[in-house]
TrEMBL record:
The keyword Methyltransferase does not apply. The keyword Lipoprotein applies. Keywords: Lipoprotein, Signal. Gene3D superfamilies: 1.25.40.390. This is SusD/RagB family nutrient-binding outer membrane lipoprotein. Residues 1-20 form the signal peptide. PROSITE patterns: PROKAR_LIPOPROTEIN (PS51257).
């Protein structure tokens, strides 16, 4: 993939020059560059796909994973745990769109149906992320700066217009892929599906399901008809093999899983990311087999000991024997010892200790704590070393490539849960129980524990019970590392019933990103018009309308999520 991306960088350089042509009276031709008029669309695809996949993962494994309460941080935690966000720039997403627009134009000129379908699908995905996160945004006037000066400060379109445009583009992409015409495709340049039009059609149709359900409260008739039509076609993601994923190759930091210890000598980015208590408790309540795939047991487990003369042991115990003078070990040492089967504990006397300790084998950090690095009587607060009394991510997430480390843009599990919700609404898409069970099974298979499906689905806390709450809880769990969908589902339904923590900037979860300073300062008229259409709430605070707690069109008038 590195070779493919390095070639596409040459194309990107040309495109960036071309995008500024309205400011120049003349562009000199570079004899060593690639002429945009003869550029090969294959070289552009991996650049767009790679950037979109990495950026989407970094959202769903970062700030948004904090909102969805999949993770918490115990260092550098305010944005993750408390949502005290400032203005957030979207230029990275629009840069992807510029590259993608060039891909679409060249594909159209060459009549390459497959490449046109890829460009339309990726345009829909990227614009979908933008409007989902921010609200109204430049759409019909976007990425046209090379055409006229008037587009240098583009007008914002409403979310309604953008969502309708996304749906139209995805329908067009699906029709192109249905021809199965892959003329012009060169093997090795499609890093998602290796040039398979049918797989891309499933991806496009699954995105259609996503966005029909997204607008189902605002456009119920269109959503119902659209979802029923896709279900009737039978062309959508049904198994994990259909998922839209990008593998990490691990050769460099830029092509490695975020927080990979190979590129983080102090391993701080890895060890500061902790499971949120909300998710961990849900997994433990039903002995979820994904628990051990995603998270590690605590290094040092608390043990109640009424005979202890002091409230807590000062020193840790190794296989029951006190290590005099040793209050903690480093992550590297702990990890090596635990892999040998060594058990570390600390004792406390419940009669003398006045606080609360979590004595479980797996421990998550409650959302929104003021000082999460102190949680569970951590002897090393202040980011000295890892909290030995709280779980870390499983060892697989220390790595940089291979196996489970994939950026996932859409999945068969998500698809099944969407259809389960649609069926529960009474739409003609089969039975809710069938789709719900498929969603659970697909997620377990994705994470390598499909053999435990029968035992898991039979648990009272997992078995389908004819409620939307049950569907959304399992969909929320299945969105691990892709938490953006969990956030937008929560925003739309209020489910799961997540609660902001004690030190969160507001007592409710945010519903959007704030428009960035570039737009507010340099495209003020259009940005102000979009900001004024946001619905101010009692939680909008000092930021006023351009706040993460001001409601965009998609949830205005719905009383959701709060």
């Amino acid at each position: 993939m590195l070779k493919k991306i390095s070639k596409s960088v040459l194309v990107l350089a040309v495109m960036l020059v071309a995008s500024c042509s309205d400011r120049l009276s003349e562009i000199n031709e570079n004899p060593n560059g690639i002429d945009p008029a003869t550029a090969n669309p294959n070289l552009m695809m991996p650049e767009v796909m790679n950037n979109a996949a990495r950026s989407y993962l970094e959202l769903g494994y970062g700030d948004v994973a904090g909102v969805a309460q999949h993770i918490q941080h115990d260092g550098w935690f305010s944005g993750i745990n408390h949502y005290d966000w400032g203005p957030q720039d979207w230029s990275g997403w629009y840069n992807m769109l510029r590259n993608n627009e060039f891909l679409y134009k060249r594909s159209t000129e060459l009549n390459y149906k497959f490449h046109q379908g890829v460009a339309l699908t990726m345009r829909s995905f990227i614009f979908g992320v933008i409007t989902d996160l921010w609200g109204d945004a430049p759409y019909t006037a976007a990425v046209k700066g090379d055409q006229s000066n008037e587009f240098l400060k583009p007008a914002f379109d409403s979310q309604e217009v953008i969502y309708k445009g996304i749906i139209a583009d995805l329908k067009a992409a699906s029709a192109l892929f249905a021809t199965k015409d892959a003329t012009g495709y060169t093997a090795g340049y499609d890093i998602f599906y290796a040039g398979n039009p049918t797989s891309w059609q499933k991806f496009a149709n699954t995105l259609l399901l996503r966005y029909y359900m997204r607008v189902s409260d605002k456009m119920p008739a269109e959503a119902k008809a659209g979802i029923e039509a896709i279900y009737a076609s039978g062309v959508y993601m049904k198994t994990p093999a259909d998922d839209a994923v990008m593998n990490y190759i691990g050769a460099t930091a830029g092509n490695s899983w975020p927080g990979a210890v190979a590129f983080d000598q102090e391993q701080s980015n890895f060890r500061r990311k902790k499971p949120a208590q909300t998710l961990l408790n849900s997994l433990m309540a039903n002995s979820d087999p994904r628990l051990k795939v995603w998270f590690a047991p605590v290094y040092v487990r608390w043990v109640a000991d009424p005979t202890l003369a002091t409230p807590v042991d000062e020193f840790i115990r190794k296989d029951g024997v006190i290590m005099q003078g040793t209050r903690y070990l480093t992550d590297v040492v702990f990890n090596a010892e635990v892999k040998k089967g060594v058990k570390f504990t600390r004792h406390y006397n419940p009669k003398l200790y006045t606080g609360t300790l979590d004595t479980n084998e797996y421990v998550g950090v409650p959302p929104g704590l003021r000082q999460p690095d102190y949680y569970n009587n951590n002897p090393t607060p202040g980011q000295t070393v890892q909290n030995q009394h709280v779980s870390q991510l499983a060892d697989v997430y220390r790595g940089s490539s291979g196996g489970l480390l994939k950026a996932r843009l859409a999945s068969s599990a998500e698809t099944a849960f969407i259809l389960a919700e649609a069926a529960q609404k009474g739409w003609a898409v089969g039975t809710a129980a069938t789709h719900y069970n498929a969603g659970v099974k697909n997620s377990l298979e994705t994470w390598g524990v499909g053999s435990q499906y029968d035992a898991y689905i039979a648990k009272p806390g997992v078995a389908y019970n004819n409620t939307l709450e049950r569907i959304m809880e399992q969909k929320w769990i299945a969105s691990w590392t892709a938490a953006t969908e969990a956030w937008f589902d929560y925003r739309r339904t209020g489910l799961p019933a997540l609660k902001a923590g004690q030190a969160s900037a507001e007592p409710v979860l945010p519903v959007r990103f704030n428009y960035g300073d570039n737009e507010v300062n340099f495209n003020r008229t259009n940005a102000d018009a979009a900001i004024n259409k946001l619905e101010t709430t009692k939680h909008s605070g000092l930021r006023g309308k351009n706040s993460q707690w001001s409601k965009p069109w998609i949830v205005q008038g719905t009383n959701k999520p709060w």
